[in-house]
Amino acid sequence: MGLLTLSSPHTHGPNSTSKVMATVILATLPGLAVITALFGWGTFINVLLASATAVASEAAILSIRKRPLAFFLKDNTALLTGVLIGLALPPFAPFWITLVATAFAIVFAKQLYGGMGNNPFNPAMVGYALVLVSFPVQMTTSWALSTQMSGQATLGFADTLQVIFAGSASLADGFSGATPLDAYKHLIAKGTADSVLAEATFNGWLNGGWEWVNLAFLAGGLVLIWRRIISWHIPLAMLVSLSLCSLMLGWDEDMYTPLSLHLLSGATMLGAFFIATDPVSASTTPRGKLIYGAGIGILLYVIRTWGAYPDAVAFAVLLMNFAAPFIDAYTQPRTYGHAKAKRGLPPKQR
Amino acid sequence: MATKSLRDISLDGLWHNNPALVQLLGLCPLLAVTGSVVNALGLGLATMMVLVGSNFSVSLIRNHVPDAVRLPAFVMIIASFTTVAELVMQAFTYELYEVLGIFIPLIVTNCAILGRADAFACKNPIIPSVVDGFTMALGFTIVLIILGAMREILGQGVIFSDMQLLFGPAAASWKIELVKDYPDFLFAILPPGAFMAMGLLIALKNIIDDKLKEKAEAQKAPVEAGSKRVRVTGKIS
Q1: In this structure, are residues A183 and A152 in contact, taking their beta carbons and an 8 Å threshold?
Q2: Number of independent structural domains in chain A
Q3: Alpha-carbon gap: A263 to the closest alpha carbon of chain B (Å)
Q4: CB atoms within 10 A of CB B173
Q5: Which listed residue, of A32, A37, A49, A194, carries a Cα 20 to 30 Å from B200's Cα?
Q6: Does A190 fall in a domain?
Q7: How far apart are CA A11 and CA A7, in angstroms?
Q8: At what angle do helices A233-249 and A286-306 cross, to 10 degrees?
Q9: Distance (Å) from the C-alpha of residue A229 to the closest C-alpha of chain B?
């Protein structure tokens, strides 16, 4: 019997880019399901719209760049970018915001830098930051209220479609409003924690449904860690540094947003497990990942507390993307067999 | 230097050595005031006035200024012309002057102007210097206007708004609304949009240059059959 002799290693990794990205997309589904159940169909429609736009713009720019279409399209990275943008955008965002954000993310933030694996910034967050900076009104008033907060059932599928494509003029009052994170920051300036909670926006319920969304993304993220698709370093460092900042600087909930709102509201968990861990734009060394994640956590707290924007995941991640190559250069691990790690920039580039 | 024909000088200024697209000089005003066509045109005209005037004067005194003090002398000349441009704008287009604000006096620091004075005007006679100044400024202005148009269309969905600031009340009706109820696209109005539009313009110029090069290569005479191959190995000393 002719045994085929191969040199080691004899096991091989079953993961391809395509499979990894598909798993990440699957892991976002619990979060998407919870959002849809609590906040209505808006985000679901956005995800579909953004995914379609992402794949279409990827195909368009690949053909302009004369790259093989099928090879790059089936790696699912464009699809994931689309899904993340869809999840990040407000549910009632007008359709053109989704189109602009996604097309910009794929064409400018990803393909103009050289395509998959060459983008220094997280494409989804570049797209999100673009529309957040450009259309502040639509981006802050298009958030849906959860069923419990508005006290009425969420909009039906057809009504939501109409709001997204025909404009918010057709939207009845009481369906959209500021997010709890945004509202708390503004209301706490004039009151105490108890008085803020009693306001109509909160209805006595701090997180307003967002805690379930975040727990669902946390669950999806833990699956990713279990499947070894992401490592624990970035999410843990980010959540720990955010908590520490909140406990040390913002312990007084009569003055600052409390820790529970920081951790379980807004895009915290989506950011920690799905956005900050982008293998291309994040730091890659183990120690670097800890620094990178901690930096995002600190920036997240700083921008949320003293900045003008309702949430800060996009800006925090983009700012740390800037720093990632630098962090990597100074956190190189020691190579086995070498006495010292080679840290810092190579002499030529100095 | 004197062998350069006026046509070459003009082509250099407008295309091959365009101050905005190739030399990347004067980027600060270029990016800051190109929010609309009228701002771009206003700054472009002011720059043109200064550049033509400074090239003319520098060329005039080129044989009388010692090398050691040439730069201070050039800067003095440029500053004088900038003051003139500023006063002219105050006299005739005061509102536009208010809009452009600090960027009119800042023309003094526009490297494109000092660059032309030092690289061209101080080594060439008057006529080529004036032509160089005019075409360089024209190339700069055209890029400014294209950028302004791009950002005005993308940012506000209109073009040629507020032209009355430069051309009198009759021009108020030149404004064309391209899209009804256009939501202001702040990114295009803010400076980052200018960087991006600028990058796209430079890319476009490089594409056109590449295409032209390809064409020129294709038009070269093909190698005649039977001609001998030249050995290319080894170094030709």
Answers
A1: no
A2: 1
A3: 30
A4: 10
A5: A49
A6: no
A7: 11
A8: 40
A9: 34
Residue A14's pLDDT is: 66
Q: What is the SS3 assignment for A175? A: coil
Which 3-state string (H, E, C) describes chain B? CCCCCHHHHHHHHHHHCCCCCCCCCCHHHHHHCCCCHHHHHHHHHHHHHHHHHHHHHHHHCCCCCCHHHHHHHHHHHHHHHHHHHHHHHHHHCHHHHHHHHHHCHHHHHCHHHHHHHHHCHHHCCHHHHHHHHHHHHHHHHHHHHHHHHHHHHHHHCEECCCCHHHHCHHHHHHCEECCCCCCCCHHHHCHHHHHHHHHHHHHHHHHHHHHHHHHHHHHCCCCCCCCCCCCCCCCCC
| pLDDT at B220 exceeding the cut of 60 | yes
User: Could you tell me if residue A120 is inside a domain?
Assistant: yes
Residues of A in contact with B182 (CB under 8 A): none
| Residue A297 binned pLDDT confidence (cut-offs 50, 70, 90) | very high
In B, which residues are within 8 Å of A138 by CB distance?
183
Q: Is A261 exposed, middle or buried (0-12, 13-18, 19+ CB in 10 A)?
A: buried
How many angstroms separate the CA atoms of A41 and A155, rounded?
A: 7
ipTM reported for the complex surpasses 0.85: no
Mean pLDDT value across chain B: 85
- Within a domain: A84: yes
Q: Domain limits at A74?
A: 17-177
Q: Please give the Cα distance from B12 to B19 (Å, whole number).
A: 9
| A62, part of any domain | yes
Cβ contact (<8 Å) for B196 and A130?
A: no
